[in-house]
Write a structure and sequence with these properties.
There is one protein chain. By secondary structure, the chain is of the alpha+beta class. The protein contains 3 helices and 4 strands. It has a two-stranded antiparallel ribbon with strand order 1-4. The mean pLDDT is 91.
Length: 86
């Protein structure tokens, strides 16, 4: 299998935040119906509701959100989440 990587330049400004995650966070089963967490829930309920908080607060919220959603479900993949602010 061959992967083609492209270089991208992003113009950044002070105060900008970036959030990157592996598919493990998005694919984690949980909730009432044992469905994957998903991109929509991640973007709307996790990022948009919390990006104005400090990075330390965000870290705790993102960890807590995943643990609460997962509940008794077994972890089905690694879940890596990186956030940083310029």
């Amino acid at each position: 299998m061959t992967f083609l990587y492209k270089e991208h330049i992003i113009e950044v400004q002070e105060g900008m935040q970036f959030h990157c995650t592996t598919d493990g966070y998005l694919d984690q089963n949980g909730g009432e119906k044992s469905f994957p967490f998903g991109k929509k829930r991640f973007n709307k309920n996790v990022i948009l509701e919390n990006y104005t908080k400090t990075m330390t607060q965000q870290k705790e919220i993102y960890l807590d959100t995943l643990h609460k959603y997962q509940a008794d479900e077994e972890r089905n993949d690694d879940a890596t989440f990186v956030g940083f602010k310029i």
